What we know:
- By secondary structure, this protein is α/β, with parallel strands linked by helices.
- The chain contains eleven helices and 21 strands.
- It folds into two domains: 1-327, 3-Layer(aba) Sandwich (Rossmann fold); 330-428, ANL, C-terminal domain (GMP Synthetase, Chain A, domain 3).
- The protein has helices at residues 11-32, 34-43, 64-69, 103-120, 138-150, 162-172, 181-193, 198-201, 216-226, 339-347, 384-402, and strands spanning 85-89, 97-101, 127-130, 153-155, 176-179, 206-210, 229-236, 241-247, 254-256, 261-266, 280-286, 297-303, 305-306, 318-319, 324-325, 330-332, 335-337, 352-363, 366-375, 407-411, 426-428.
- The chain has a nine-stranded mixed sheet, with helices on both faces. Strands 10-11-12-15 form a four-stranded antiparallel sheet. It has a four-stranded mixed sheet with strand order 20-19-18-21.
- Strand 18 and strand 19 (366-375) form a beta hairpin.
- It starts with 10 loop residues before the first helix and ends with a strand.
- Bound molecules: 5'-O-[hydroxy(phenylacetyl)phosphoryl]adenosine.
- The site of 5'-O-[hydroxy(phenylacetyl)phosphoryl]adenosine (DLL) has 20 residues, from helix 5, strand 7, strand 8 and strand 12.
- The site of 5'-O-[hydroxy(phenylacetyl)phosphoryl]adenosine has 20 residues, from helix 5, strand 7, strand 8 and strand 12.
Amino acid sequence: MIWSLNETLPREDIEEIQLKNLKKTVRRVYKKIPYYREQFKKLGIKPKDIQTLEDIQLLPFTTKDDLRKNYPFGLFAVEPREIVRYHASSGTTGNPTVVGYTRRDLEDWKECIARLVTMAGVTNRDTAHISFGYGLFTGAFGLHQGLEKVGAGVVPMSSGNTRKQIKLMKDFGATVLIGTPSYALRLAETAIEMGLDPRKDLSLRVGCFGGEGSTEAMRNKLNEQFGMFATENYGLSECGGPGISGECIALNGQHINEDYFLCEVIDPDTKKVLGPGEYGELVITPLRKQALPVIRYRTKDIACIDYEPCECGRTTARMSKVQGRTDDMLIISGVNVFPSQIEEVLYNTEGIGTNYLITIYNDNYIDKISIDVEVTDDSVLESIDALEELHKKVQDNMYTMLGIHPKINLVEPKAIKRTEGKAQRVIDKREK
Ligand code: DLL
């Protein structure tokens, strides 16, 4: 099912809506936000200079740092009394980035999420178990309100208390699981520890996962373990949270809600806009935001965009899976590698579990990585031959697929600390 006719418009019509809303947004930030007025002045541009969609390239970029410098409300375009909701992203250092929503922003958010869950196959007959943490993080509230709009029964479980999550999913007959893909895998693992068969004892049929990247190998594991159809969706707090894009059942990339978000892909070094199918940094301009209308937000997420209509009937452009971030690329002995690529290799190596931890360290001025990985069967650890064989298999796969020779530490099942929200997969021990 397709939630909105706007998802099926001819490209000219989508672009007409985008241009109209882009012009409005540009006028709005110029009038209401001194920071942007200053930036426009520095570049010698006025809102009237934006006459075509390509003219967006005249506009300044916005970064997380700009939001931090204007903490907490410096980039808001409305009076505090018009804000009805706040969220914030969990900055590990310094100020978090704060986002605000007006009443209409919340309505738009619901609409965007309703489209995404519908395209994943969720209907008003479903019961959706939300295992994202409720709080400042946008994931739980975002999905919650859109699922209600579709008419699904929402279980606002939140994160933590993993065994109870399994019990409630079982007792309530949850058919849809919402959360991070890494936590979903932990839920499967815990269900098995509790003596359940997640395929038979739970009724999950659809997964809507997001908030962190996942590989195809991870999707296969989720499908296999729960007997579900796992989909992924994408978003970020600074542009309003989840709701920017999501996968339909054709799994052809994530459909962008293009009437709400204008996405570009740029070369992160030259800042030149790249064409369809070219990987680069995703830059997003929300087109209808009242409270926090950021312009050309640099996400640091690496993806590409495909504008061909999809077999599902939607005409909206599709973004690829996020391949990594411009800031998480590891350079190991001159080889560029993303943690997601390491994950893909691990998940495709038989005998290796779903949990791993990459440590980057410095050895004699050279960056090196070591990877702790859990074996699925701890009897391997008792036989030197079996251990060596598995060790060699992981090493060989890493070299054949990625051209790297990381140090591999095989550890027993469940030895690596689990997280309940976004997984922490990389520890950087290099001296700064
Ligand atoms: O993670 C919003 C969200 C919540 C999206 C729930 C989807 C579902 P932040 O905490 O601000 O917001 O983190 C945003 O998370 O820039 C990406 O690096 C990463 N991210 C989010 N979804 C995906 C995804 C939410 N599907 C940052 N694939 C983004 C890859 C993702 N990375």
